[in-house]
Design brief:
about 80% helix
Length: about 80
């Protein structure tokens, strides 16, 4: 397994952890449990961001620019859905 695949797997696992912590926070029944999940979620989001930044710097996570027309179409779609 090369570095790129290893980082992709770690990023995927970290995203899964974030999902679990988010649901734990949403479903928690006490303020202490909610705060523990929220803190863990914020730490995991920070780790996910660091992983993404490293992968992006190496060209392993390419991002394409969205076309302005597509952005405008989505804005119109969601603004009309709220009406």
């Amino acid at each position: 397994m090369d570095d790129k695949n290893l980082m992709q797997n770690i990023l995927l696992l970290e995203k899964g952890v974030c999902d679990l912590y988010m649901h734990g926070s949403i479903e928690s029944s006490t303020q202490n449990v909610h705060q523990a999940f929220k803190t863990a979620l914020n730490e995991s989001l920070s780790m996910q961001d660091t992983l993404y930044t490293e992968m992006s710097a190496k060209g392993w996570y390419p991002v394409e620019q969205a076309e302005q027309s597509k952005i405008e179409n989505l804005k119109q779609k969601f603004s009309s859905a709220q009406s």
